[in-house]
Amino acid sequence: MLTLDAITIENGGYAVQADLTIAPGQRVAVIGPSGAGKSTLLGGIAGFLPVPHGRILWRDAEITASTPGQRPVAMLFQDGNLFPHLTLAQNVGLGLRPDLRLSPEQRAQVDAALTRVGLSGLGARKPAALSGGQQSRAALARVLVQSRDILLLDEPFAALGPALKADMLDLVAEVCADTGATLLMVSHDPTDARRICSHAVLVADGQAHPPVETATLLNDPPPALRAYLGQDGLP
Amino acid sequence: MAWRTQPVISPRSGVVAAIAIAALMAAALGAVLWRAEGGRGLGPADWSALRFTVVQAAVSALVSVALAVPVARALARRQFMGRGLLITLLGAPFILPVIVAVIGLLAVFGRNGWISTALGWAGFEPVHIYGFHGVVLAHVFFNLPLATRLVLQGWADIPAERFLLAAQVNADARAIRRLLEFPMLRQVLPGALAVIFAVCLTSFAVALMLGGGPRATTIELAIYQAFRFDFDLGRAALLALVQIALTLGAALMALRLGRGDGFGAGLDRPVRRWDANGLGLRALDAGVITLAAAFLLLPMGAIVANGLAGLSALPNSMFRAAGVSLGVALASAAVLLLLALPMAIAAATGRAATVETAGLLGLAVSSLVLGTGLFILIHPIASPAAFAWPVTALVNALMALPFALRILIPPAREVVRTQGRLAQSLAMPGLSFLRLVLLPRLRRQIGFAAGLGAALSMGDLGVIALFADADRATLPLQIYRLMGAYQMQAAAGGALLLLVLSLALFRTFDWLGARHADA
Amino acid sequence: MKYLAFAAGIFCATGLAAETPELTVYTYDSFVTEWGPGPAVKAAFEETCGCTLNFVAAGDGAALLARLRLEGARTEADVVLGLDTNLTAAARETGLFAPTEIEADYDLPVAWDDDTFIPYDWGYFAFVHAADMPAPQDFLELARSDLKIVIQDPRSSTPGLGLLMWVKAAYGDDAAQVWTDLADNIVTVTKGWSEAYGLFLDGEADMVLSYTTSPAYHIIAEDDTTKDAASFDEGHYVQIEVAGRLAASDQPELAEQFLNFMVSDAFQSVIPTTNWMYPAVTPAQGLPKGFDALVEPREALLIPEDQAQATRDTALAEWLGALSR
């Protein structure tokens, strides 16, 4: 259980407040108008932004003061998810050992993860030699080997086409199923949320609301969300 | 609890290095002051030396940097055969010993130089190089290469994606200037100005030789006078303090002005430019490159021409000195990196002011005073001659440190900014971040910095003259000694040897850095 | 066992040291190059002394003195070779030097009577120029002419200081005016002799401040008779280079032996064609061919040591005043 116990997350000039819990293994979309604080919410959970008030707990253990790397969290950003000078295999290997002193078993694990995401045989390539979709797959392969309890996606697939993005979301769902991870995923597109997320958290006006079922939220959006989604959001 | 952003890699060792440098300088100055016996304070002559020093350094820095911008821009947006070699050669004046470079310069601009000779054929008076303008000309000659490299680095550090983006929106040369180049220059130029100002502040032999007389007395010469003419160590140390204050003042101002946003991360691809294909701009760039090359390379050519005859007359002592110099240069480059890398990391993780200030001390402290201070400290413990090489390597590294920091800090900052978050989310320990991310990402700049450090050390007369006995001379010292024994030709041969070795060292390091760096 | 080995090591080391004592001589840079007197002097002295002679080079005469003052009584130097008559007063004042008994039949242009320093060579300062050029007869004619000269800064160079003293010795209170008149003849002022002479050889000036013996180098070593030294009617200032031994030396006998060697034929015969100065004691075989072609100044100028310090400071102020305008 991920518990955000009356937290305030500060991000420069503004703050986001949250007081909610998310069940383990749940896949949750984070939805809300632009600038409402969706990325701030994730940044707070990941440990990149200060949380001056409240507590963050995972399985009853407090992680509010932990550094990003100590938290049971893997995160994919909008960009910069791969080190451009390292090969794919190295980039994935970082998820196992950040000093890259990999054992043969770990190397095999890296290869397996690359195969799992459909990049079999491309381990020696560098990111610049890959397409955007392939780069996303490589980042997911790393998340796979990291097998952290919580996966945070801050729109890593925003740049991909609809078909490719759908593939990636399915892959994310599979990765979550494989690892049993809890997913929080920022999305602008209701169809993304419907596709893989059973629940959704609405972030609006600096407030993150407790999760509700995705269909419930999208079928009858509150006014703030309705204005943001426009007619497209309605069934 | 107080929530603090932990840096991805600790600035501690860099801060320790900065403090150690400051402590060493303070100890050296303190030693000189401690040995001082009475003496008089600063007189009117010292104040006029101070005025002259500041004015010539400021003008030299401004002119160097102003000329460097078009040259760097032309080099940044043109690809042509031998571009890499040209860039290396253009760096040569910076790493030459002063006297060698000045003789090359005079072969072109002197009363009996090529230009005057040509003017003579046309019935004109020879050019008069001696005077304030001569000092500035020589300083521009020495520092234009450095300024160009620093600015060129700025261009290279703009990610290729930004140019792709600019091409996307069909930005022309003017729009690129506004979008990319001006912001970059605003970041790069103040640092370049500060460094060159500092270099010119401590100039001495050039200013005197081309300044045409005691009007061109700089602080460094006043220190020299205090030291050997009056043996007034107190005044020497006071003047050294004034020099430090000036350099640091200028540096802090420059750092303040130079603050600005970086350019964001980008995947590395070779830069292709679409904005400057017009005939006019191509002709402009070609003209700028040709002029700069002529200005910098003709004197080099004179040194080569002078030296060829002397090569066969080179005594064994010259080759032994060359071996010594190579060893000292390599050691100096190693020391330089050991200091500069942690300091660059510390600067990238938020301790910029401390680090850059300490870094500039190497330039700000008169080498005569620093050498004398170290001499006073070492002499009671051991024979200074035994320390001639280590001290020279250390002092040369300190003098190259400001340049290395200017080269390393911006990319280190960029790497920490763009890739620190990912590394932190992976719980990457600081050392792994250094080994896996920072060092590989900075390879090109590390190679450049090490090459510059090694080459500078090759050419620097530095403090070796205070410490060395007959057998421990470095190449520049040996050249001076031969000149003092009427062996002008052998000295010219030695100068050529020095030029070739320095460039080869620089080129090798630069190449090593670039070879494994991702294109 | 360890202790024994250590003790044996110490014993051997001291034993060796006792066998071949070391004599450390501080001198200026150009003395120790293979074209300088250093190598020949070292070989000749070591042949007779049963010792090792170590040269330590430290810049020029003034740098030597500064280094000695820094080191004080702890200096490793046994002998200092390369001070000149402008520095002897300050050197004597340090109290670091020991008196010497050595006397010799000096061939100097001035009488020599000094209980501390022994002269080993000397020369006249002079302006060197191309032989095919009519040279001025004195400073005043030089100042009136369009000739361009390169000189050295007295604050950083021994010849530069020599010129200052030369003008002062020749013109006394009118020296400042002479400098004012000379200002437009001076192309530039360099840090040291090497830079100035290099500029002259590269054609940057018509004349350079050097020594009357400079043409001898070109004649003998390069078979080149195109250089000449101008003879000035005022007379020429003399530079006498001296050596002295240090009171704190741990090899006083050897140091004295070296000083004695310095006024002997073995040392003196090396000087003319390596240091390009006149030997202080003319060697038995006389001066080498080529020295006979040098100009002979009609008068030797030298400001006595006890006035040199005060004169130096006044002259420098006048020089700075005249050339800074």
Verbal overview:
The complex is a heterotrimer of chains A (235), B (519) and C (325). Chain A has 235 residues and is α/β, with parallel strands linked by helices. Chain A has helices at 38-46, 88-93, 104-116, 132-146, 162-179, 190-196, 214-219, 223-229, and strands spanning 2-11, 14-22, 27-31, 53-58, 61-62, 73-76, 150-154, 182-186, 199-204, 207-208, 212-213. Chain A has a domain at 82-147. In chain A, strands 1, 2, 3, 4, 5, 6, 7, 8, 9, 10 and 11 form an 11-stranded mixed beta sheet that branches. In chain A, a hairpin with a 2-residue loop joins β4 and β5 (61-62). Chain A is globular, with a radius of gyration of 18 Å. The two termini of chain A are 31 Å apart. In chain B, α1 packs across α14, α2 runs antiparallel to α9 and α12 (233-257) crosses α14. The longest helix of chain B has 49 residues, at 316-364. In chain C, strands 1, 2, 3, 4, 5, 6, 7, 8, 9, 10, 11 and 12 form a 12-stranded mixed beta sheet that branches. The model of chain C is unreliable at 1-17 (pLDDT under 50). Chain A binds chain B through residues 46-48, 50-52, 65, 67-70, 73-75, 77, 79-81, 83-86, 90, 94-95, 98-100, 126-128, 146, and chain B through 1, 3, 5-6, 265, 267-269, 418-419, 421-429, 431-433, 435-437, 440-441, 517-518.
